[in-house]
Amino acid sequence: RQVTMQYWLVKTEPDCYHWDAFVKDKRTMWDGVRNYQARNNMQAMEAGDTVLFYHTGDDKQIVGTAKVVKTAYPDPTTEEPAWVVVDLAPLKPLKKPVTLAQVKGQMGLRDMALVKNGRLSVLPVTEDEYELIMSLGK
């Protein structure tokens, strides 16, 4: 059967974990998620899924793409069995970061989870939203 690629967005404070550090690391365990909806999104991730890497804080912009290289497994940073992590690897930076203001200003992105559920740290992205963001980031 045809497996459909899924798209996601993960958020990080750039002073906590910056895109440049991610690129240098070549791979990272995405940990510290303590929200059930965000955790459920991580559990739905499949190896090979594409992830938009978003800087929160003052930046508020999508800066690059990554891929899921290991699906959900127990978060080793906590004793709580409820929490999971995934492993991500960087793909490429966007030529032009796509700001939250740009996302909110795009007709085709107004219903994006990033806009509708802005507090969540791991969000689903539709294929159309992904394509539109990639065209904005060229």
Give a structural overview.
The chain has 138 residues and is of the alpha+beta class. It has helices at residues 19-25, 36-44, 100-105, 113-116, 127-136, and strands at 7-12, 28-30, 50-55, 61-74, 84-99, 122-125. Strands 2-5-4-3-1-6 form a six-stranded mixed sheet. A hairpin with a 5-residue loop joins strand 3 (50-55) and strand 4 (61-74).
Order of helices and strands: EHEHEEEHHEH
Detail the poorly predicted runs.
Answer: none
Give the strand content: 35-45%
Q: What is the overall shape?
A: globular
The residue-averaged pLDDT reads 96
Number of helices: 5
Give the total of beta strands. 6
Q: What radius of gyration results from the CA coordinates?
A: 14 Å
Global structural class: alpha+beta
Q: Which strand order spans the largest sheet, edge to edge or round the barrel?
A: 2-5-4-3-1-6
Largest sheet: 6 strands, mixed
The percent range for helix content is 25-40%
Distance, first to last CA: 33 Å
